[in-house]
Write a structure and sequence with these properties.
Strand content: 5-15%
Helix content: 40-55%
Strand order of the largest sheet: 3-2-1-4-5-6
Structural class: alpha/beta
Low-confidence stretches: none
Radius of gyration: 21 Å
Number of domains: 2
CATH class of the largest domain: Alpha Beta
Distance between the termini: 29 Å
CATH architecture of the largest domain: 3-Layer(aba) Sandwich
Number of helices: 11
Largest sheet: 6 strands, parallel
Length: about 290
């Protein structure tokens, strides 16, 4: 293909970073991938699986890179950006894969200095309940959406390079403002994860938890699938986007209060009306996906 990167450096070679590397390799869009991680074990595993071609010892691995992807938990973003900044040479472009954007933008403005124009905040809307490099897949981003949230300072060359890289992975790219991004994903991603973790924690706390889990079937499994997601990653996401998440949580609490009142007064008609509205809205959404 015509688009090809010479050197890509990935900080955090887990599900997201590892899948990015594999997708680029599968597309013939990169010559060399260097991985940097917190533990030698994870990087050794990525090497053994062929996800990366070389292990980087520290932020200095970014020297001479065409593209640097920050794919570690968002709570580490500021620290990694601070370490990375002295090693960013022209024309290296930096992007991230975090599920929150306003905090990432703030860290970039504080830490990246003259490289800010070459930073392109991004969020691939893809994942799985399993984490780590063993879960990485070259097809994870096929047909998925990646949201870019460029800054006013971001050069179009940098944004275009990141867009081409994600398109090489099979993704469809959209652009959005950082604030809008965080408000949208608080509602449709961060709140559902919070609720799934909470429900499993609630059931596990029952005195008869073993009996409850023994009889839990597909409904419970489907609703709580995302509670198998990476706890550290989702802790950081929820804390980073807590203002928008708290607003959505308040709305959900109000919805639960309404349902409680309906049940308390035994109003079957009102309960069915809520269910019908929700079913119709979900069916419209599923139809739009076609």
């Amino acid at each position: 293909m015509s688009f090809q990167l010479d050197k890509v450096v990935i900080f955090g070679v887990g599900l997201i970073g590892g899948s990015f590397a594999l997708a680029l390799k599968s597309a013939g869009a990169v010559r060399r991938v260097v991985g940097v991680g917190r533990t030698a074990g994870s990087i050794s595993r990525a090497l053994a699986l062929g996800v990366i071609d070389e292990a980087g010892k520290d932020a200095g691995a970014a020297r001479g890179a065409d593209l640097v992807l920050l794919a570690m938990p968002v709570g580490q973003t500021r620290e990694v950006m601070r370490a990375l900044a002295p090693h960013l040479e022209e024309p290296t472009v930096v992007t991230d894969a975090g599920s929150t954007k306003r905090d990432v933008v703030q860290h970039a403005e504080t830490e990246l200095g003259g490289a800010l124009a070459r930073f392109v905040p991004a969020h691939p809307i893809a994942g799985a309940e399993h984490s780590g490099v063993d879960a990485a897949s070259a097809t994870l981003y096929q047909g998925r959406t990646v949201v870019l949230t460029p800054l006013p300072q971001t050069s179009e060359r940098a944004a275009a390079l990141v867009e081409q890289a994600w398109e090489a992975c099979g993704a469809q790219v959209q652009r959005m403002a950082p604030r809008e991004h965080d408000e949208v994903f608080a509602a449709v991603s961060h709140l559902p994860h919070l609720l799934a973790f909470a429900l499993v924690d609630l059931v596990a706390g029952h005195a008869n938890a073993g009996r409850l889990f023994e009889h839990a079937a597909s409904g419970f499994r489907d609703f709580t699938r995302i509670a198998s997601s990476h706890p550290e990653m989702w802790r950081d996401i929820c804390m980073s986007n807590r203002d928008a998440l708290l607003a959505e949580l308040s709305g959900y609490e109000a919805e639960l209060a309404q349902l409680r009142a309906i049940l308390d007064r035994g109003d079957a008609g009102a309960l069915q009306a809520v269910f019908e509205r929700a079913r119709a809205a979900r069916n419209r959404w599923l139809e739009s996906l076609k």
